[in-house]
Specification:
The complex is a heterotrimer of chains A (328), B (240) and C (289).
Chain A: H1 2-21, H2 27-50, H3 57-75, H4 79-101, H5 106-127, H6 129-132, E1 138-139, H7 155-178, H8 180-190, H9 192-197, H10 202-228, E2 230-231, H11 242-251, H12 258-276, H13 280-294, H14 298-314, H15 319-327
Helix pairs in contact in A: 1-7, 2-7, 2-10, 2-11, 2-12, 3-4, 3-5, 3-10, 4-10, 7-8, 8-10, 11-12, 11-13, 11-14
Chain B: E1 17-26, E2 29-39, E3 44-49, H1 55-63, E4 70-75, E5 78-79, H2 85-90, E6 93-96, H3 108-119, H4 125-130, H5 133-136, H6 147-159, E7 165-169, H7 177-190, E8 195-199, H8 203-209, E9 212-217, E10 220-225, H9 233-238
Parallel strand pairs in B: 3-8, 3-9, 6-7, 7-8
Antiparallel strand pairs in B: 1-2, 1-4, 4-5, 9-10
Helix pairs in contact in B: 3-6
Chain C: H1 3-34, H2 41-59, H3 62-88, H4 93-115, E1 129-132, E2 135-138, H5 139-161, H6 163-173, H7 175-181, H8 185-207, H9 217-232, H10 237-257, H11 259-276
Antiparallel strand pairs in C: 1-2
Helix pairs in contact in C: 1-5, 1-6, 1-8, 1-9, 1-10, 2-3, 2-4, 2-8, 2-9, 3-8, 5-6, 6-7, 6-8, 9-10, 9-11, 10-11
Classes of the chains: A mainly alpha (328), B alpha/beta (240), C mainly alpha (289).
């Protein structure tokens, strides 16, 4: 029981804090933070754990968002089913391109993903404008039916739903970290030859990671769709390609809570800055260059080791504490 | 001969190269521990050791391709630590790596042109004097040369600018015996003008040429053989 | 298919391919020599176009504008190289990708700040048309192709007949080795970067009369330029030329056949080629991940 609690306490704390912040922060802000952090989580996993950088995350976001949008606009009204369709779309897309993309060297990988995002943008904006309504976007807010228990059509209750979903996502990734598969992911990033010699297939590890990360991104897209009640090609515009990357690095690449911290900081900054300067690109561009040059550990990345030291000193009597004691 | 580690006690101010207390790591893995050696002008010094003992690392560090964690590398009263490798090359210290890499897309002529451009020495007669075969190969691309020819080109190119110290990493590895003996003669001639630090696994060759031998084992200098009597393959073997 | 449209289509494809080629050389060289992905080349392209616009407005001479655009882009590239890239050469590939993307996005912000978001037109310097095989073809597009060919020859001469060019070719194979000879590679890097930036600026200037100049123009061609680079293979000038030609023709002739798919066809081709050769047609397989 105690062990189980220890495993969960980090996530419980983080999300309780997030839920409580609703009391002080405006609802649109926290909703944005939650969804954005899920979006970033996919990128964080790819970059931090597997070592892939992708400038094409918007493509999978769009897959999820448009999947949900199509369902809710043309077929049905149940938002849960819509989201499922969105997630499945993401799964399908990443399953199709994955086998090819994953074999590529890291720079080609980043670029083909970016190309995919641009293609999607073009597809949604022009080619399939018949069904996507092009730049006008798909509006389906009124289509969303009321759902029992939590009416996620309404922002207040959507927030609760989103926090629960995020909680689940985090629990999933934490679990993944603890498994052998999680170790394989790290290994493939650091030393792929050694992993090969151990008998694992780098390709399979990476392919699975690719699919998991991008399906997570699609989930975020589905959430966006339901939350906003509207989807437009802008969601996969190449100008937005940097967003998840910036937030990942800002929060701390490869850390578990990095995406949350990063999303918080980023959305906060966006709110503040856009009231002061209209020029968003200027800010984000320089921010990115600045973080890269200054040291790419990010906010949570620099905090985490210090917090860990703080806690291991407290837990004298536990194995970790004993070792820490012995070292001193 | 007691193992000599670290500081060379009788550092002669005229030494062309003096290394002391050199510690080098690749990331977290430490490769050289407290290594020291001394080379006098026009002396042939050899460094022997098994694979992985750290011989190449030592040469790379002296030539400026690696930064040591600590220690000093002094050439004619100038510290080499922290200098860029091209600055060290311009000082007359040339490194000839183990991999026999010449620029494969460039012809022999172009390879030499680069060397001349770097050293401002356009006199190729000396080079073709040592390696007459290069004259015939001038227009052949580096990628089409045999191992021996590449080695000749590498050494020839390094000789431009009349270097005073050559750091040669396993020059005879993988070469036919006739070429090895030719190289041996060339290196012998070269030492009339330049000091040589030779890393080699070919013990008989080393013992025939060197006037001082350092034995490197697992990153430490375990022996320094400075008198001609003791420089024999059998003796070296002991320390490896 | 109307043969009357074929000739202009081919010319159109050649001219757009030329623009892609000019930008892709810079990217290829920067990767080959410095092992960086310089996404900010798209920014120098935009700068070239905008300076062309401003100078044309001020002096009335488009060619002057283009030359000015090329030059200013080169200067900006120099500044960026000295201030930023110099610190990150040793790092891994993805690092330069992220940083250069940041420079690109930030640069777009700067452009927006100075010029606003409204697209600007640049007049075509040569309005006349000429008859080729029975159809009218704009001379300006032919000039663009001509410039690209001159640049290719120029780069070839530079790389094969000058000592700096030979040093760069050697550096593409093994930079450490070149440094070990006694050559200051940091200067080589700077020269290469300036060349890349200037060529991208030239591409922007040449392209400006053919399209509307707007802040995100760099992002719009980004995907195509990168498809050209990936298909041709990073590090190969010859590959870049061939793939620029291919992509240009596919986009152009493709749009005669079926417009919407034409923009996506290069993507499909890229995927096909990557399936067979994961580093592109002539790409250097040197680097691991």
């Amino acid at each position: 029981m105690v062990n189980a609690l220890r495993w969960w306490w980090g996530i419980l704390l983080a999300f309780s804090l997030l839920a409580l912040s609703r009391a002080v922060l405006p609802l649109p802000f926290v909703n944005e933070v939650v969804i954005f952090s899920i979006y970033t989580m996919g990128c964080n996993f790819l970059l931090g754990r597997v070592g892939f950088i992708s400038f094409g995350q918007p493509a999978y976001l769009a897959a999820g968002a448009y999947g949900t949008a199509f369902y809710l606009f043309y077929f049905g009204t149940n938002p849960y089913v819509g989201m499922l369709v969105g997630i499945l779309s993401g799964l399908v897309v990443s399953g199709i391109v994955g086998p090819l993309f994953v074999r590529l060297r890291s720079d080609y990988f980043a670029l083909v993903n970016l190309a995919l995002a641009v293609i999607f943008y073009y597809l949604m904006q022009k080619v399939l404008a018949g069904i996507t309504k092009g730049d006008n976007g798909l509006w389906f807010l009124t289509n969303i039916a009321s759902t029992p228990v939590l009416n996620i059509g309404r922002p207040n209750e959507f927030f609760i739903f989103a926090v629960l979903v995020a909680f689940g996502v985090w629990a999933f990734y934490k679990y993944l970290d603890d498994t052998i598969y999680g170790a394989c992911c790290l290994a493939t990033k650091v030393n792929e030859d050694k992993l090969k010699f151990l008998g694992y297939s780098n390709y399979r590890v990476r392919l699975l990671a690719f699919i998991i990360a991008n399906t997570t991104t699609a989930l975020a897209g589905a959430l966006y769709a339901v939350y906003l009640g509207f989807v437009s090609p802008e969601i996969t515009s190449p100008a937005r390609a940097a967003d998840p990357v910036v937030v990942t690095i800002l929060g701390g690449t490869g850390t578990l809570y990095g995406p949350l911290v990063g999303a918080f900081a980023y959305t906060g900054m966006k709110d503040v800055i856009s009231k002061l300067i209209g020029n968003w690109e200027l800010f984000i561009g320089f921010l990115l260059v600045f973080i890269m040059l200054a040291g790419d550990k990010g906010i949570w990345g620099t905090l985490q080791p210090r917090l860990e030291k703080l806690f291991s000193r407290r837990q004298v009597g536990t194995p970790a504490g004993d070792v820490a004691e012995a070292r001193r | 001969m007691p193992p000599d580690s670290g500081a060379a006690p009788n550092t002669n101010a005229d030494d062309i190269l003096a290394v002391r207390g050199l510690n080098v790591s690749y990331g977290a893995a430490k490769v050289l521990f407290d290594v020291g050696l001394r080379v006098e002008p026009r002396q042939i010094v050899a460094c022997v050791g098994r694979n992985g003992a750290g011989k190449s690392t030592l040469l790379k560090c002296i030539a400026g391709f690696l930064r040591p964690d600590s220690g000093s590398v002094i050439c004619n009263h100038t510290s080499l630590v922290g200098l860029k490798s091209y600055e060290i090359a311009r000082m007359g210290i040339k490194y000839i790596p183990q991999d026999k890499k010449v620029f494969s897309d460039l012809t022999v002529r172009e390879n030499l042109e680069l060397g001349s451009y770097a050293s401002k020495d356009y006199n190729w007669d000396r080079i073709t004097g040592y390696f007459p075969k290069l004259k015939q190969l001038m227009d052949r691309k580096g990628g089409y040369l045999s191992g021996g020819e590449r080695q000749m080109l590498m050494i020839g190119r390094a000789l431009l600018g009349s270097p005073k110290l050559l750091l040669v990493d396993e020059p005879t590895e993988g070469l036919a015996p006739s070429i090895v003996s030719h190289l041996k003669d060339v290196l012998g001639e070269l030492s009339k003008d330049a000091a040589l630090v030779l890393v080699e696994q070919n013990l008989p060759l080393v013992c025939a040429m060197a006037s001082k031998v350092y034995a490197l084992k697992e990153g430490r200098i375990v022996a320094e053989l400075a008198d001609r009597e003791s420089i024999k393959p059998a003796v070296c073997e002991q320390y490896l | 298919m109307n043969t009357q449209l074929l000739i202009p289509g081919v010319i159109f494809g050649l001219s757009i391919g030329s623009i892609f080629f000019l930008m892709a050389i810079g990217l290829s060289l920067c990767f080959g020599l410095m092992r960086i992905i310089s996404l900010d080349q798209l920014l120098y392209y935009s700068i070239g176009a905008y300076i062309t616009y401003t100078l044309t407005l001020a002096t009335g001479n488009v060619w002057l504008g283009i030359v000015g655009g090329c030059g200013i882009a080169g200067i900006v590239a120099l500044a960026v190289e000295r201030l930023i890239f110099r610190r990150i050469y040793e790092r891994e590939l993805t690092f330069s990708m992220i940083t250069s993307f940041g420079i690109l996005i930030g640069g777009i912000g700067v452009i927006k700040f100075f010029w606003g978001v409204v697209p600007r037109p640049v007049p075509v310097p040569i309005e006349i048309q000429t008859r080729i095989l029975g159809t009218e073809v704009p001379v300006y597009r032919l000039v663009v192709v001509g410039v690209a060919i001159l640049v290719y020859l120029g780069i070839w001469l530079f790389l094969n007949r000058t000592i700096t060019g030979k040093a760069i070719r050697a550096g593409i194979e093994d930079v450490e080795h070149v440094e070990g000879l006694g050559i200051n590679v940091s200067r080589l890097f700077t020269i290469t970067f300036i060349i890349a930036g200037s060529l991208s600026g030239l591409a922007g200037g040449l392209h400006a009369p053919l399209i509307m100049v707007d802040p995100t123009m760099g992002l719009e061609v980004l995907a195509f330029v990168f498809m050209v680079v990936i298909i041709g293979g990073l590090g190969s000038i010859k590959g870049t030329l061939i793939s620029a030609f291919i992509v240009g023709q596919v986009v152009s002739i493709g749009s005669l056949i079926y417009a919407p798919m034409a923009q996506m066809a290069p993507f499909a081709i890229m995927l096909l080629i990557l399936l067979v050769k994961p580093t592109g047609l002539y790409g250097s397989p040197l680097l691991k991940r």
